[in-house]
Amino acid sequence: MKRILIAEDRPASRELICTVLESAGYEVIEAEDGQEALDKASGQQLDLVLLDLQMPKIDGFGALCLLRKDPRFEKIPIVALTASAMQGDRERALKAGFAAYIAKPVDVSMLRSEIDRLTGGRGPA
Predict the structure, then answer these.
(1) Domain tally for the chain?
(2) Model-level pTM?
(3) Distance from first CA to last CA of the chain, Å, rounded?
């Protein structure tokens, strides 16, 4: 089963995304902020990371930068999540090194499709 770390500070958003991914057959690890995401990532073999761009302690851009410094995370897809879909945000996130950009509120079918695309599907259970 493929493992995904989601860092999202809003409980309702985190719960929705976790439910969608778990029902699609992924194992999900939750973090409430960027620092917790880094702490949890360090001890895991991950297939994908979802980072909210606006989180306390360390935001999504900061967490991306720190994760990419670790050779284990150089090639793992890291996806930006944001409720602030301003003009230029998508381009800024992709230029920073995010593999994809997902606006909130999350379109459930688009989220599943994008995650499946980036991970090659949920894989064997």
Answers:
(1) 1
(2) 0.92
(3) 5
